[in-house]
């Protein structure tokens, strides 16, 4: 197996040859294998289209390695090279051959002041060829390297055209302390070296000594251990292990805590040159600090007007290197107020000068220059929280050359800060400069609060004077109630009269503020397919009482507006000559918890009414650090890209991080806090691809753009130790119609702080939900329907926020489709049950071995223990509890050290048939062809047939037990009754210890005294009748 790096081209490189151009070549370093491309002379946009191959002996370790790609300028005036930029690609981003796509990577700097620009286009993939490692031929060949041409001449057969040309370079490993940055950047190549080694495509850097002018002999095979196994042998033993390792939780060691550069309170220039100092603060201690240059453009005054138009349409432009940000413009205003903030990441700063321009917007011609203000970044102050915001100052505008002050002033504030700054969420970010229009609002971080949900209970008691439209008949009346999109009906009244009665509860979900009305209609079922409206009333929800306990509320009569006066309906529709009344008992339930998520992953158990809330027992802090190795989710400019953001939900609080544009390894470093009211709750985090940025993004699939799910993580708080920081990389695993796929990793820092240990212990003995769920519980169907309605309301309300938290995001976070049928989930749940019963089954097998004397020593010890417990029965319960105590102490050594995560093996996701996955992702109702639906229906019938047989066998055994005393079989019942009489006399006369001792010794008797035939009680029980004979 080999790793292939296809170097396609580069764009907009920095000129380095002194003539406005560069002769660029690419050097790729993987592990200790180093190779390079040919040199393209005099071209700032070189095209190589060259493949570089590396031997990959352990595919499993690729996710822990990285590939470093460097671009250099090949100097001709004197030997050496200039650094043009580098790219580091994480090994987890490498795909198999056939899945590769062309990716463009912006070139990174070697250090802060490196003048680097441009990007490079690469294709990286794993190729299964060659299947065996390249052989080492015995006769070594001499390879002479020509530094002027960068090519190699060998006496052996040259590599194929698809492979890169071998180039060996000698790097200097020593540097003088006083060397300048320019000298460090120009890495000189010493004299040509003559290398004698086998004809392979790469040279290991540790095997080539950087000594110029000497011949280097490759070590003999005896000295260098060479793997003998072929790739197939390695793959066979590692395929399952690598897949399991890929889905595991990984430990990480991020540098958490808010650390400020030394001298932050002194001169402002310290942040440009020094790294972390010793000052710590506690506000953002679960994330890695990210430094930003903030520019607040407040307002301007006394701006000059245009000599032609006589007006001024001003706007401000902030320029830092290649980044430009503009404020909104005002028409005909010489004293504009913008109050906008611009943020530039320190990692991407390419200049030491910040320029703020004021310009006059022109509709046709080029915008007029008004003035500018220039700042030296070495003099920018640093703001350290919790300092107050930096006060803006007035600055006089300068001309283009910065020599003369011109008319007009602008109020600015420039400072260095972190993502903890209050200006960060609403600032314009340089790394998202490509987003325009409405997309700017969709990339910002935001905190949302779920609407306050209530259960609305409508008890329809009765109605009076219900007049049908047809005279001479009694109505088949029922009541239909509607709140928003929720519609419920009562049954048809069993009393056919003009005063029907129902006494039936209808339960709805309502959200504050109450925008909907309760609409009640009384209808007459005149035909199975036709209902006639007899009366209607609309009641505001604010009219009803809020109940905080189980005590009943007062009932009320409401007059209905009547419809249907026959031929006079058009003239008398609104005349209330005769009114129908309905008797209702309506209340808003405040003592229930309105569930908008599954009880298995519930994050909040508090009742609706705030008066019933308890004090919080702890604080949950989550640092959303970054993601690694995300898969491309859409295409943009004919290349794969991902615009990722993270959503976290716990209780009523939702948080959304900012969107990182065009990055497979986004870094958010945002920290959020929740109050915890119950430790047995779950926090859910999901990563999504933002498809609402405008432009030419093309999400996968057709139809309206939807934010694509990348993966989800759940963390149960009760599995966390208190006051401990967990830093792990969680695998983002999604199930697709093609199978399970890892979409990347989400790096988190989590800490659960307990405020009162006594309150936590107290909660473990109390119900999970409020007491009204147990005093007046809902049915299972009601719980499912109400949860779906609550989820729809939450999705609709959060979708109206700015930026919106869209419906597909809310449904994925709340597991909206968890109730749908899935063959995969059914298998997973079945094997979960079998795993639980495995301990009992193992115990029964052990006891059976004891009874059959498979291990005589164990059986004798069991006999001794049994006799001791019979003689001293008071030791039975203490022995059981002491045994469980010892097991608990023993298992403490093997306790889980990491939070649980998504388990593909437990979910039965790795061994699922593609058709079962296709069925799981099918819509409801189905949209598949009839033949496919028929096949799936037959498969479901076969599975249900087996379940039906098992359930029938269980029912048969229960009915046989009932027939012991039912005289269904007179002879069997007579025998059992006589046996009970004899047993009662014997047990009364004989001491219980003797009976227990005899029964135990009989059960543990030696196999010599056993028969291979079933026992008498078993034969008697199997002959008893059941009701299976009466079934059709």
UniProtKB/TrEMBL annotation:
Region entry Disordered, spans: 131-186
Main localization, broad class: membrane
Compartment(s) where it occurs, according to its Swiss-Prot or TrEMBL record: Membrane
Pfam family, one: C2
UniProt xrefs under SMART domains: C2
Family: Belongs to the MCTP family.
Protein name from the UniProt record: FT-interacting protein 1
Residue stretches of biased makeup (Low complexity): 141-181
CDD domains referenced in this protein's UniProt entry, alphabetically: C2A_MCTP_PRT_plant (cd04022), C2B_MCTP_PRT_plant (cd08378), C2C_MCTP_PRT_plant (cd04019), C2D_MCTP_PRT_plant (cd08379)
Keyword Repeat annotated: yes
Annotated keywords: Membrane, Repeat, Transmembrane, Transmembrane helix
Occurrences of domain C2 (ranges): 1-105, 274-395, 435-558, 601-730
Transmembrane segments: 830-848, 860-892, 975-1004
A single GO cellular-component term on record: membrane
Compositionally biased tracts (Pro residues): 131-140
Topology within the bilayer: Multi-pass membrane protein
Top-level taxon of origin: Eukaryota
Coiled coil: none
